[in-house]
């Protein structure tokens, strides 16, 4: 049986048995990941890997069909002056823009991710959240990025959060489900680990740090705690779960540090867009600029790269 075919029943975990996080140890490990030196050939390979793992995102109230089409063109043609680049993993948009993205990406192997469940606050009824999920999938979304009800989680209503994730997963059908914890609102690394465990047991295909709408968003410390939770969950169940840090990762050098951490925590099997993503809007341009620097020895102006 392939790793992706492993199924486990959705059972509410006992969060009282989740081990406490060693925050000092987390900080020390992150510092070591950030101190790694990477040779030029490996750096070029890592930068290309970063590009292929990006969920190119626009989630603004001012989004228009034209802006989404332009973003899709960027996804297809990251930088035509550099042949052999991978395309991004997905375009991430609001549900009302999924149909526009589907049309613009026709004939290209790029996923369409849609946020759902009253993104970014999650403050709506379950019925509305499920209807929004179904609407996005019906319009062509192949991935759903849902937000958990942080208020319910912080109030200790864990069964409510668990049941909601199970219901959204069912409503999304074959679409892969990324569960956004909004770690900046959870407050502690212990809560981040508990929320990660809860989401995975409820059926998440990915766990994701943030909406990108509040600070702090993704940090290496939070991401490491979530990666460690994935590792333990895989040992327990045999089911692989993906990871998506999102928000604030606009620097290619930082993104490469995330890849080092991913490799040393989960191993080579997770080093693909199927199991690791960056939620970003400007990371692609910085990665492209760094690749041009490696190729030519000089930086190109940001004006040589499309903004969207």
Q: How many domains comprise the coordinates?
A: 1
CATH architecture: Alpha-Beta Barrel
Number of strands: 8
**According to CATH, what is the topology?**
TIM Barrel
SSE order, one letter for each helix or strand: HHEHEHEHEHHEHHEHEHEH
Distance between termini? 41 Å
Tell me about this structure.
With 308 residues, the protein is of the alpha/beta class. The protein has a single domain, classed as TIM Barrel. Helix content is 46%, strand content 11%. It is built from twelve helices and eight strands. It has an eight-stranded parallel beta sheet with strand order 7-6-5-4-3-2-1-8. α3 links the parallel β1 and β2. The longest helix has 18 residues. It is globular, with a radius of gyration of 19 Å. The N terminus is likely disordered.
Task: List descriptors.
308 residues, alpha/beta, TIM Barrel, 8-stranded parallel β-sheet, 12 helices, 8 strands, 46% helix, globular, disordered N terminus
In short:
The chain has helices at 23-34, 40-52, 65-76, 98-104, 126-139, 150-154, 158-171, 183-186, 189-201, 220-237, 252-266, 283-296; strands at residues 54-57, 90-93, 111-116, 143-147, 176-180, 206-208, 242-244, 278-280.
